[in-house]
UniProtKB/TrEMBL annotation:
Organism: Eilatimonas milleporae
The protein's Enzyme Commission number: 2.7.1.81
Enzyme class: transferase
Protein name: Hydroxylysine kinase
GO cellular component labels: cytoplasm
Single Gene Ontology MF annotation: hydroxylysine kinase activity
Keywords for the protein's UniProt record, in alphabetical order: Cytoplasm, Kinase, Transferase
Functional note: Catalyzes the GTP-dependent phosphorylation of 5-hydroxy-L-lysine.
Catalytic function, reaction form: (5R)-5-hydroxy-L-lysine + GTP = (5R)-5-phosphooxy-L-lysine + GDP + H(+)
A Pfam family the protein falls into: APH
């Protein structure tokens, strides 16, 4: 009997980083963390707090000199991917030190990272980052000015990263929704046949109508995960963007996908898809080039992100049932978003309509 994945003709294998998602997060005691901080950074914490994470081990570090985030990468994370991430953060700091993203704290030896062996005996890369303050976007009231502010920040980030280069910038990742067709092997983890059929329909549409157009889009490294937990808001006066962190899903992809990913997470709290896109674009376009052809595919890229979230979270919840609640936290919203995209009236999303909507000439 054919499986749902086998029904998707020509489905590619999963990206190489699938090992990250089947490898459990590192396990370190607070005592190990404290010893590591003293040895590698000369820091003596007075409080250590474990933070929720999908595949890594993260800790908030409070010291007399300030607050930091300690990131212990999954043992399956390739060193090249860790270096890529570190170089992106360093590039942002060098190009735009005022941009609110985490900064790498160098080790006592001057390096970006160090190595620690966790309780299972596996070595992991460790980095210490500055801690960003602000209200999580998920706890903020959404408004047009706030959405435009987020769009503006993402446009500025696009400009900062436009000239970034790295020998391993093309590392494939599962969360690259512009390659969602590669996740077809995960269809069998979706238990409901009716829902699997919906996903298969959207995957076929992407493969046939969207993927062939992506080669024409401007590309560079993007953050790729502007979700309500990773974006911070300044609520003094008119709410505005205050920072973005967790660069763990960076990917070399069409630049416009940065907006599409952000839009998927904002959609649940906005009444109109087109107005949401318009607000994001009006901020983004003040800093970064954005063509009407780019904007016409934003709804399809939003759909691709919803598909990516659904397929990966169902799969990982099966792998780690003890952490299923955390893994599936965005799954209901992704299904709801997918249904909204199905109902969306795209009549005005022609190149001419987009120009009129966003005030571009």
């Amino acid at each position: 009997m054919a499986t749902a994945a086998q029904d998707m003709s020509g489905a590619a294998s999963l990206p190489l980083d699938r090992d990250l998602f089947v490898s459990p997060p590192p396990r370190l005691s607070f005592e190990q963390v404290a010893a590591l901080l003293e040895r590698a950074y000369g820091i003596h914490p007075h409080d250590i707090t474990a933070l929720a994470s999908e595949r890594d081990a993260n800790f908030r570090i409070d010291t007399d000199g300030g607050r930091f985030t300690l990131k212990v990468s999954n043992a399956a994370e390739p060193p090249a991917a860790v270096d890529l991430n570190s170089c992106v953060l360093n590039h942002i700091n060098e190009r735009a030190p005022d941009f609110p993203a985490p900064k790498i704290v160098r080790t006592v030896g001057g390096g970006f990272n160090t190595i620690v062996t966790d309780g299972t005996g596996k070595p992991s890369n460790v980095r210490l980052l500055t801690y960003l303050d602000g209200l999580p976007l998920g706890d903020a009231e959404i408004s047009s000015p706030l959405v435009r502010s987020i769009g503006s920040a993402l446009g500025r980030l696009s400009c900062i990263l436009d000239d970034f280069d790295h020998p391993h910038k093309n590392i494939p990742i599962l969360w690259d929704s512009t390659n969602v067709h590669r996740l077809a092997p995960l269809l069998d983890n979706v238990p409901d046949k009716g829902r699997r059929d919906v996903l298969k329909r959207h995957l076929r549409h992407f493969e046939t109508h969207v993927r062939p157009t992506l080669g024409k889009r401007r590309r560079h490294i993007i953050h790729n995960d502007a979700n309500p937990g990773n974006v911070l808001v300044n609520v003094r006066g008119t709410a505005s963007f205050a920072g973005i962190f967790d660069f763990g899903d960076i990917v070399y992809a069409p630049a416009i996908n940065e907006l599409a990913v952000a839009a998927t997470y904002l959609l649940a709290r906005c009444d109109d898809v087109v107005s949401l896109i318009s607000d994001l674009v009006s901020g983004y376009a003040g800093h970064a080039a954005c063509t009407s052809e780019d904007l016409c595919i934003v709804p399809d890229l939003m759909t691709a992100r919803f598909l990516t979230t659904i397929l990966i979270t169902h799969w990982r919840a099966d792998l780690f049932p003890g952490n299923a609640d955390y893994i599936l936290r965005n799954n209901p919203g992704a299904w709801a978003g997918l249904e909204r995209m199905d109902r969306m009236d795209r009549a005005g999303l022609t190149p001419q309509g987009i120009q009129q909507l966003t005030g571009q000439s």
